[in-house]
């Protein structure tokens, strides 16, 4: 399937071969057909987005291009020449892949990472001055002019390490750059810097494949988008011919109208009452209530205090002022353990760092908040723990071989379901979800949304922090907006729109 580029549109007479052509790529594993005849073309100076749910075949396609997988059928050409098999062949042909998990070595210098295995040398001795000069040139092209090549890589913040990975591709004279979820661990200002680098590389003639779950990134950066579903390409067009609704529908094979399964519900009594809550130095003053059966969204820019608010309520951060009442009873949470005892649960925005024990089983993760309830005579009942995990896995539709599967081997969406299974295992009164769909695919998002509605329908008070405005507007009964540590307004669902929320979130005042 051929994607017409903007460059082609400007130069219709050009007959130059595409930089990359993948034709009829098939790849199977025991019991699974990962790729079903995938075809695409990428031209120089073009950013192509590849989108699709987890399991759609994106990673298998990238690994086939990089040489990590050998296709069962199909052809790959670079500049009209067949690509030889093997990882080194792809690298030699100018293909560089930047995975979500960086492939850099923290204990080496920046220059050593850039030229790993091919440092300039003479008579067996590394030519440090030459290596540093070459490193500075590559670093300058990604905006890291001030990073010393001799600096230990691990001393750089994550956002700069990500750019070092891009500089590594430049230093290898890559002509095709594949970026797999490159913004997953970055803050908003770092993402803008990465966008600027991608645009400069495109202007320099590099062909870029950009894989992202975030559709706003796709529309911001890409010249075209290829949609994959069930191992096949199901759509490929210039971005000017895509709408968000069409992209989502192509990815999940259902209409956008069913994407946010919000429904009107009857609310019960006030379950959570927060008054003048503060936690130095960020959270200054927060007052709000949430009723049983309600879904309340919390909006705000980075640093506004959204996460700090939830963590202070839960007991993960100390409250320096204010009161919290659950079901009409004043509580003081000095720790998450006390928060759970008082009927609160909190799911972290960083599920890998704070939310899960990745090398433990699903069973162990689900049971973490319920060990006391599962114990008898000082010993945790293995049978009760197994049943708790199995019930949670069934309730949330966790796709795994069994509850004994290691959690780190699950997809992002299934990891999030494990977190929800643990959160609801204690039958909480208040469920606080911090960025519940971050880093998961569109199909998994719709499942998480459906579970949120079920939790609210069952009588829980649900609070959701999200940086994705469509998500907040689509799922919330009302939206609270935070600005510089305080809740500055409350907006009813029927009056909430992007412009109003952004105005309050960026200025602390209405229009």
UniProtKB/TrEMBL annotation:
GO terms for cellular component: plasma membrane. It is found in: Cell membrane. Coiled coil: none annotated. GO terms for molecular function: ATP binding; ATP hydrolysis activity. InterPro entries: AAA+_ATPase, ABC_carbohydrate_import_ATPase, ABC_transporter-like_ATP-bd, ABC_transporter-like_CS, P-loop_NTPase. Keywords: ATP-binding, Cell inner membrane, Cell membrane, Membrane, Nucleotide-binding, Repeat, Sugar transport, Translocase, Transport. CDD domains: ABC_Carb_Monos_I (cd03216), ABC_Carb_Monos_II (cd03215). Transmembrane segments: none annotated. It is a peripheral membrane protein. Pfam families: ABC_tran (PF00005). Residues 20-255, 265-509 form the ABC transporter domain. This is Sugar ABC transporter ATP-binding protein. It comes from Caballeronia concitans.
């Amino acid at each position: 399937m051929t994607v017409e580029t903007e460059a082609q549109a400007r130069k219709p007479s050009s007959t130059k071969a595409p930089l990359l052509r993948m034709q009829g790529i098939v790849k199977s594993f025991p019991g699974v057909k990962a790729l079903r005849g995938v075809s695409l073309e990428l031209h120089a100076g073009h950013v192509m987005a590849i989108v699709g749910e987890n399991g759609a075949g994106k990673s298998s396609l990238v690994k086939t291009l990089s040489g990590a997988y050998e296709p069962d059928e199909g052809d790959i050409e670079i500049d009209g020449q067949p690509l030889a098999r093997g990882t080194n062949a792809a690298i030699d042909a100018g293909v560089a892949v930047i995975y979500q998990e960086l492939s850099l070595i923290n204990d080496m210098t920046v220059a050593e990472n850039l030229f790993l295995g091919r440092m300039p040398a003479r008579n067996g001795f590394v030519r440090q001055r030459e290596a540093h000069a070459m490193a500075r040139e590559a670093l300058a092209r990604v905006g890291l002019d001030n990073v010393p090549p001799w600096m230990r890589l691990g001393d750089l913040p994550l956002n700069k390490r990500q750019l070092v990975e891009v500089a590594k591709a430049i230093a290898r004279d890559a002509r095709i750059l594949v970026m797999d979820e490159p913004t997953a661990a970055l803050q908003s200002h770092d993402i803008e810097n990465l966008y600027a680098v991608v645009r400069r590389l495109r202007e320099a003639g590099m062909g870029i494949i950009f894989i992202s779950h975030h559709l706003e990134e796709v529309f911001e950066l890409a010249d075209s988008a290829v949609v994959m579903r069930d191992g096949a390409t199901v759509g490929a067009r210039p971005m000017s011919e895509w709408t968000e609704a069409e992209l989502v529908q192509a990815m999940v094979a259902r209409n956008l109208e069913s994407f946010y399964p919000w429904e009107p519900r009857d609310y019960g009594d006030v379950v959570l009452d927060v008054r003048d809550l503060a936690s130095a130095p960020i959270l200054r003053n927060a007052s709000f209530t949430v009723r049983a059966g309600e879904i309340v969204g919390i909006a705000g820019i980075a640093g506004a205090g959204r996460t700090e608010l939830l963590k202070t309520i839960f007991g993960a951060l100390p409250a320096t002022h204010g009161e919290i009442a659950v079901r009409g009873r004043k509580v003081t949470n000095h720790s998450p353990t006390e928060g759970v005892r008082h009927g609160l649960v909190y799911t972290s925005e960083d599920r890998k760092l704070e939310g899960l024990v990745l090398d433990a089983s699903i069973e162990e993760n689900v049971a973490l908040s319920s060990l006391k309830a599962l114990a008898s005579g000082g010993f945790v009942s293995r049978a009760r723990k197994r049943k708790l995990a199995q019930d949670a896995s069934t309730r949330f539709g966790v796709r795994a071989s069994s509850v004994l599967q290691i959690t780190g081997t699950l997809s992002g969406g299934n990891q999030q379901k494990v977190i929800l299974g643990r959160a609801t295992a204690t039958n909480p009164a208040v469920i606080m979800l911090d960025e519940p769909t971050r880093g998961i695919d569109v199909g998994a998002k719709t499942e998480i949304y459906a579970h949120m509605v079920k939790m609210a329908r069952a009588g829980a008070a649900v609070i959701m922090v999200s940086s994705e405005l469509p998500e907040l507007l689509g799922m919330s009964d009302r939206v609270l907006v935070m600005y510089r540590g305080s809740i500055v307004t409350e907006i009813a669902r029927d009056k909430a729109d992007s412009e109003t929320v952004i105005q309050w979130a960026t200025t602390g005042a209405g229009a």
